[in-house]
What we know:
about 40% helix, binds nicotinamide-adenine-dinucleotide
Amino acid sequence: MWNGKKVLVTGGASFIGSNLVDALLERGATIRVVDDLSSGRLENIEEHVKSGKVRFIEADLREPGVARAVMKDIQVVFHLAADHGGRGYVDLHQAGPASNLFLDGIIFWEAVKAGVEKVCYASSGCVYPNHMQTDTTKEVYLREADVRPPHDADNMYGWAKLMAEMTLQAYHREFKLGAASCRYFTVYGPRGVENHAVIAMIARAFVGQNPFEIWGDGQQIRNWTYVDDIVGGTILAAEKINDGTAVNLGTMERVRVIDAAQLALEYAGKSADFKFLRNMPTGPANRVADNALARKLLGWEPQVKFRDGLRRTMDWYFADRKPAQVKELLETMLTAR
Ligand SMILES: NC(=O)c1ccc[n+]([C@@H]2O[C@H](COP(=O)([O-])OP(=O)(O)OC[C@H]3O[C@@H](n4cnc5c(N)ncnc54)[C@H](O)[C@@H]3O)[C@@H](O)[C@H]2O)c1
């Protein structure tokens, strides 16, 4: 299915985008990446660009004419470009993520005009109603059907993701555009960035931070999902979903922030006291996906347990980084992009 397919990956220099590019290249796709490098890094795909396997265009897709030009002759679009950061960014910035409304709008509109076969969209667990995610004593698993009126998405970032999903469904119904949305849940893995919780914890363990800072009381629950699983699910969604259905890509493993931090310290061979920063943004208290629909529609199941994924990610991080560089990053990155 992918051999020789002409694929556009928007935001392809990002953490998830670059891992997706690797996997699509393995399957033989012909790839064009557009990224303005506002949060992506060219080094993530540099090898492929230098070897001529990937055509890279540095451009802001919101600028007039850019989306139309890059869409030419493309068969499948993976749309990952977004104004996005970690929890600190999503909570504290509304204007940047609001521009995703028209960024997504331009991409989908131009995809229709260019006769693209399929758009596969990087959505998010942030489309789920906030009010379902407040109680850590409840074993809640968010099901796709829980996204229904009255909507209660997570910040402007979540509303834009929701509007994009709905736009794709309408474009499928009325314009016959093939479409799929993947709701990613807190992704981690190699090339991850310190503004996301798991990489921030790894960074703190790496520099030996003591006391070790945790945002909130550490009781927040997440289903951190390894990037290889996310990439595999995204490609399957592009293969198997055509009607704009949105599907959760997330494990059902429930991990508390404090336990993840403890494990990161243990793997680093360090111990530290915890310092809870209760005024920092934490996001929802309890966010875990139900992945039954992905199992049914895609035959997808996450393969990587948190313990294993964390170790793999730490191996990458510890080999890749220098302590002085990370100490400086920790001052600035957590609420930035
Ligand atoms: N990381 C997660 O846990 C997570 C969870 C849910 C959804 N997502 C979504 O997955 C996608 C990839 O996220 P990520 O975490 O890998 O990194 P990211 O947020 O850095 O990815 C966004 C990419 O798009 C590029 N970009 C942003 N605005 C652009 C513009 N106007 N024109 C061109 N390029 C632009 C950035 O430089 C970056 O490479 C995003 O759409 C994000 O919203 C991520």
